[in-house]
Amino acid sequence: MSKESIASALKQATETKFLEIGSDIINKVPEIFAAQFPGKKAIVIADPNTYKVAGEKVHKALKEAGLEGEEPYILDDPNLYADYVFVEKIRDYLKDKDVTPVAVGSGVINDLAKRASSELKRSYMCVATAASMDGYSSAGASITNKGAKITHACEAPKALLADIDIIADAPPLMTASGYADLYAKVVSGADWLLAAELADPQNPKKGIEPMTSAWNIVQDGLAEALQDPEGAKKGEHKAIELLTEGLMLGGFAMQSMESWGAGVSRPASGSEHQFSHLWDMEHHTFKGEMAKKFGLYPNQDEQAPSHGFKVGIGTLAITAMYELMLKTPVEELDIDAAVEKWPSLEEQLKEIDEMFGGSDIHPFATTQTTDKYVSKEELKEQLTKIKNNWPALKESIRKQVIPYNETKKRLAAVGAPVEPEEIGIDRNRLRESFYRAHKIRSRYTILDFAYRAGYFDQWVNELFGENGVLKG
Asked: What would the pLDDT profile of 277-289 be if each residue is shown by its tens digit?
């Protein structure tokens, strides 16, 4: 991956003005902070682990440079995760203090500091400690709020530093999680190809976006970034640097989509992420030997699988569905029959009542499904476009999607879970998750095509049938 591609992506980013990735650069934090936040004082935001591996060094360097505004704020809750209650704690602590946050950590710390900073209308800096997810540079934070896992609108960090020496020493499970999160861009890219077929540049709709330069930001270097899962697992610097760059580029791509509205994550998130978000919203945890093997918090009995691990299982599930799609004669689709069977919005909302009635997910799924509902006339137009252009679209999807067996091999090589049971999801629940995940996001994906074209039951039955790859 060339430095030119990073520089080009940074130019297209609307909020992040500085990024440095390299070895032995942690002591450059004061220099970068002073240049990007002139006249400001800093406060380090970390948890006990990230403070130990990098936060203490950052704090000491800032203090020696005369840039410390407050003592570090350490989030030491043993059940710390990306929940809005922790955003409120950071925000309330900082609101009367004239300091600029320096988030030292990975997914949780960055998202919490990002949202809190946004609510305070302050820019912030992030020092990455692991290649564990793609949210460092994104304009938005994935946070659970009142039971619903949603992407909250907020500004990306103004400055980012990623010291490869520190990141390479992160727990291998965190690296595996980041690799799985980056790998998801393969199938989310296929979802975008599918949605872009329906997009009208003259009448753009959120959820059915046309292709933009964000595609190239994510996809051009993706194959290179994913080429060495074994090296990433071992903490080899070249593999870790490529992985880190790939994750950062995903965030810059999302920033470049801001004209579409706040928190548009189309370049980096598709149907595979809907599985992860669903399980988050269901407050999924697991325990036992698999939890010990794939849990990032060994002192806790009940484990919440990492974002990347949930996304990785979602990626395998959606990859399997895409392989079925490529075998299906879509060019023979009976559009009139599909339109005739299209359930009304009222009927679809009854499905949501049955799936989510009485849960925190119900109102969210109702809103998302209502937002993406189309009339029979609109459905006929959509299906006609895909059917008529299927030969070319099929070839594009075929080139985009990495085969299921190869995907499974690479995820296993990096140390990520490859069976749903490894994150506490049994086969029946995985099967139901196809249906439930479809209802919680208005973004157009393969799940929407399958539902609208009448293939959903057929494909799910085949995936979990006698010879299905998801049978287990």
From this structure: 999 899 899 988 8
